[in-house]
Write a structure and sequence with these properties.
By secondary structure, the chain is α+β, with helices and mostly antiparallel strands. The chain has five helices and six strands, in the order βββααβββααα.
């Protein structure tokens, strides 16, 4: 998981847009991003998604319509989203949110490439895509 880098701008506003399914984040350096809930969910920094080491990542599918049920603060450095599919183990530091926002075009391309390599669609149920345990969740 990305840690808190002292040089990373901090959020000055977080707005959950449930209807459009995006988290709007305005940062102290003037940058602002609209991060889709789906992107947040498929790139969750949790061990359930990232695995416990290189090559253990679990490709997430079927998350297009995921909602953000809650957004809990974690100290002064992060938030913990609770998603409508029950996923709640990712802690999103300010630098990780900045990364997701600033790199989302590349992240979507990487995701589409991984889906194609796995031969699954973005909307496939997780059971069809995962094929392995997801840390007991």
């Amino acid at each position: 998981m990305a840690g808190l880098n002292a040089d990373t701008p901090t959020p000055v506003a977080l707005t959950v847009h449930a209807k459009s399914r995006v988290l709007e984040v305005a940062f102290s350096d003037g940058a602002g991003f609209r991060i889709p809930f789906e992107l947040m969910r498929i790139y969750s920094p949790s061990a359930e998604v990232q695995g416990h080491g290189p090559g253990q990542e679990v490709l997430q599918t079927g998350k297009r319509d995921v909602q953000l049920s809650e957004l809990e603060p974690v100290g002064n450095y992060a938030v913990k989203p609770v998603f409508s599919d029950g996923h709640d183990s990712g802690i999103y530091s300010w630098d990780y949110l900045y990364f997701l926002g600033s790199e989302q075009d590349q992240l979507w391309q990487d995701y589409e490439r991984r889906l194609a390599q796995a031969g699954v669609s973005r909307d496939a149920p997780m059971a069809a895509a995962a094929g392995k345990s997801s840390c007991g969740h």
